[in-house]
Amino acid sequence: MYATKAEVDRIALPRSLVGRRRRTYRVNSPYRFQIGDRVMFHDSEAIILSRSRSMMGRELFYIQLISGEIAGRPFRTVYGFGLIPSGNPNEDRRQAHTDT
């Protein structure tokens, strides 16, 4: 005299029993820009001072603005996707990293 097996909604289960997808992040991948590279942030030119990665694998760059209208607050922390290389072709390393 066993009870019939009923379908249980995943949300009704305790958190310890709910299967979660584990994301894998590329933490060993090369950075888009090197320290000292000139980049464009909106309409301003900037220099990369430092860099790090967030827990989710996003690139964080610490920049100093050297030209433009928003240079009143010269030091900023920005995500890597918000930066583009400046006009100097020797500093454009994004193509080298996307080919691999």
Poorly predicted runs of 5 or more residues: 91-100
Walk across the major sheet and give the strand order.
4-3-2-1-5
Helix content range? under 10%
Topology as a string of helices (H) and strands (E):
EEEEEH
Total domains, how many? 1
CATH class, named Mainly Beta
Strand percentage, roughly?
A: 25-35%
Mean pLDDT across all residues, rounded?
77
Q: What's the end-to-end separation, in Å?
A: 62 Å
Q: Using the 3D structure, state the CATH architecture.
A: Roll
- From the alpha carbons, calculate the radius of gyration and give it in angstroms: 22 Å
| Strands, count | 5
Named CATH topology: SH3 type barrels
Helix count equals 1
Let me know the largest β-sheet: 5 strands, antiparallel
> What is the molecular shape?
elongated
Helix/strand structural class: mainly beta
In a few lines, what is going on in this structure?
The chain is mainly β. It is built from one helix and five strands. It starts with 37 loop residues before the first strand and ends with a helix.
Helix-strand layout with pairing:
Elements: E1 38-41, E2 44-53, E3 59-65, E4 75-79, E5 83-85, H1 94-98
Antiparallel strand pairs: 1-2, 1-5, 2-3, 3-4
